[in-house]
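Ligand: 6-O-phosphono-beta-D-fructofuranose. Inputs:
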Amino acid sequence: MTTDLAWPIALTIGVDGVMSGATGAYDKLLGDLDGVYLNDGAFAEAVAAQGHDRLAYHVDEHRYGSDPGALIVGTSTLLPGRVGDEFAMTRGHLHARADRAELYHCLSGRGVMLMDTVDGRSQAVPMTPGVAVHVPGHWVHRTVNVGDEPFVTLFCYAADAGQDYDLISDAGGMSQLVVTDGADGWITRPNPRHTGYGSAA
Ligand SMILES: O=P(O)(O)OC[C@H]1O[C@](O)(CO)[C@@H](O)[C@@H]1O
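Predicted complex:
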């Protein structure tokens, strides 16, 4: 028996994303998301109006190691908003070990899990409280807040997965944009800057 065996732990997770037992946390600020949105002018206006340091999303996580088989469990709280006609979103990534899957469960708010494969498939899954999305390995993924309240998800993925962020920026963004439908809903529309993911992963 190994001596550094992790102990089981109970985590308390609120619908507001607050998690007891977290071992780490980080914030992403609006100004950190330069290049993520299609409309650079609208992004500059949003930063000028709301400030570089306006919180975009907050992540709490619990991890106990990075051995193959270990899990990272956490919450992501994505604030509402728009940049141009695009809804607020995370940077998005493919796992550096691309075959690693991830589970997201919506705790509160209204969002979309936007996913692409590098060979051209795309999927946008609506998420409301109680909906879980199983993101299989090899799918690029990001969350998008299409509501007026924080969009809070519980996530769980392999601790050795890692994140590749360059794949999306090198491709000019994901293949689809999640934009307002002009009323109180959302639609996807092709991203005119998307160049395809090349031969990656
Ligand atoms: O890592 P990104 O793409 O900035 O998005 C953050 C989200 O993804 C995660 O890294 C989980 O994969 C969480 O931290 C959060 O849900």
